[in-house]
Amino acid sequence: MNRERLIFLTNDDSYRSKGFEAAIEVARHFGRVIAIAPEAPQSGMSQAITIYNPLRLRKVRDEEGVTVYALNGTPVDCVKMAFDYLLTNEKVDLAISGINHGSNAAINVLYSGTMGAAIEASFYNIPSIGLSLTDHDPDADFEGAVKYGVEIVGKVLEKGVSLPCCLNVNVPNIPLAEIKGVRISRQTRGFWREEFFLRTDPHGREYFWLTGGFQNAEPAAEESDEWALANGYVAVVPIKVDMTEYRQLEELELLL
Amino acid sequence: MNRERLIFLTNDDSYRSKGFEAAIEVARHFGRVIAIAPEAPQSGMSQAITIYNPLRLRKVRDEEGVTVYALNGTPVDCVKMAFDYLLTNEKVDLAISGINHGSNAAINVLYSGTMGAAIEASFYNIPSIGLSLTDHDPDADFEGAVKYGVEIVGKVLEKGVSLPCCLNVNVPNIPLAEIKGVRISRQTRGFWREEFFLRTDPHGREYFWLTGGFQNAEPAAEESDEWALANGYVAVVPIKVDMTEYRQLEELELLL
User: Fold this and answer.
1) Taking CB atoms and an 8 Å cutoff, what residues of chain A touch B122?
2) Which of A171, A194, B43, B163 has a CA positioned 20 to 30 A from the CA of residue B36?
């Protein structure tokens, strides 16, 4: 028999979230699990790293095949701590980030702590998969996300994939029986537009809450991840980290 | 005479940094300046947004042509607060983020709060320019960065550029007279590898400091931004926000 596989796990909702347990369930299908997850929720933390504060790591769970550490940092800190410190003597087969409570489709990939961690893990020469469910409820139903998570991770591990590989997997919040399957997609164009709720605290000082909504610039684009989700598919977008806009190089050569 | 131009300004080193004053100097060449900058340093904050905490905005400076607000949030929060709240009745001509103390070339674009803000500002249908100097010193010499900042912003404003436009401009830390000019570049391939410094606090508890170095995967690539900087050029990389790895779509269609 082959050596048991090792799956690294992290997320952005903290090690105490229901989605994190769902990710453990996915990963346990394939081998041993070592996780470093944030102590506190880190939604919207993007690819942020901790520069000004010390990091503290503590083991919060150690049972047959599942070891979980909590770190008082960002999702990307968790990944760096794993691959440049804790697991330098281990061979990790794959990284999973999630399962996120809430969609990371479209431009959300840029703000998402879940995807920040998934992107970071792909820098360490392993396939990396960010899993998200389009439901922010802390008690969301992860049945469909677990089922498709297992299917996608299984195919990546068993058939192999060319590296670097980082997948942004979003699962629609509908009953498992209604999910139509996996749809390879591209990032939807569109941006968030925010509303700031102005309130006054008991000391008479004003403050704001940031909130807003995603404005889909191409709701009819069948190749986009938002379309896939809206039409009952699991959307899978391969992510790259070269942000150069090659099409603009020539214009800039003339301009500057 | 035309209406006076309006430049929006932000950064990630806070409104009290020397580089922020240098950015005001750049912007003042072109018109009125309204800035929202972080209260506290936000280096490494990437595209992070503040979800769990209220935001407080206060005016910290108001003089002829220059108004500065401080916000207790991330660089991206500052941009959203500007374009979705404070400046919704103004026509902004261009956004500048910086001038950052430290390089944002190569993969740093993903971690950078400066570039997070520059990217965010480009979502509001204006040209957006992130300016960085490859020197972390709080008292760094911004002469070259100001000179080239003025040159680049001037050309973008006067000749125009196709939108969306987000430029990642990095200036080498050498005397102005030795800078060879502007070089349009692409993002250098390579990743950070971290070292975690383990220490023990006076209470006997261990903690880590995150630190590390960038590993350039292609130091000889003359089209890369790191090469440009190492060879005395100002590196300009146009940034896009569609992170889809199109070349991998077909492989995934077969795999999943």
Assistant:
1) none
2) B163
Residue from B245, B246, B254 whose CB has the most chain A CBs within 10 Å, to mutate: B245
Would you put residue A221 in left (φ > 0), alpha (ψ -120 to 50) or beta?
beta
ipTM, 2 dp: 0.94
Q: How far is CA B225 from the centre of its chain?
A: 15
| A33 within 8 A of A67, measured Cβ to Cβ | yes
Structure tokens at A64: 């047959």
Quick one: DSSP state of residue A86?
I
Contacts of B74 (CB under 8 A, 6+ apart): B38, B42, B45, B48, B49, B50, B113, B116
C-alpha span between B17 and A45 (Å, rounded): 23
Contacts A155 to B, Cβ<8 Å: 255-256
Q: Which two tokens stand for residue B130?
A: 């992130």
What is residue B246's DSSP assignment? G
Spell out which residues of chain A touch residue B81, defining contact as CB-CB under 8 Å.
196, 208
Cα separation of the two ends of chain A:
61
C-alpha to C-alpha distance for A168 and A184, rounded to whole angstroms? 10
What is the residue-level pLDDT of chain B in tens, covering all 256 positions?
Answer: 468 999 999 999 999 999 999 999 999 999 999 999 999 999 999 999 999 999 999 999 999 999 999 999 999 999 999 999 999 999 999 999 999 999 999 999 999 999 999 999 999 999 999 999 999 999 999 999 999 999 999 999 999 999 999 999 999 999 999 999 999 999 999 999 999 999 999 999 999 999 999 999 999 999 999 999 999 999 999 999 999 999 999 999 999 9
Q: Which residues partner with B126 through β-bridges?
A: none
Report the residue of chain B nearest A215, measured CA to CA. B123
Whole-angstrom Cα distance, residue B146 to residue B100? Answer: 12
Is residue A57 within 8 A of residue A81, CB to CB? The reply is yes
User: How many C-beta atoms surround the C-beta of residue A246 within 10 A?
Assistant: 10
**Would the CB atoms of A155 and B256 count as touching at under 8 Å?**
yes
Would you tell me how many other CB atoms lie within 10 Å of the CB of residue A138? 12
**Residue to test with chain A: of B43, B46, B94, most A Cβ within 10 A:** B46
Nearest CB to A187; choose among B49, B55, B244: B244
| Cβ distance of A46 and B116 shorter than 8 Å | yes
Which of A205, A216, A256 is the best substitution to test chain B (most B C-beta atoms within 10 A)? A256
Tokens standing for A165?
């590989």
Q: Round to whole Å and give the CA distance between B233 and B171.
A: 7
Global pTM value:
0.96
**CB atoms B184 and A246 under 8 Å:** no
Chain B nearest CA to A30, separation (Å): 17
Query: Are the Cβ atoms of A186 and B81 closer than 8 angstroms?
Result: no
Q: What is the largest CA-CA distance in chain A?
A: 68
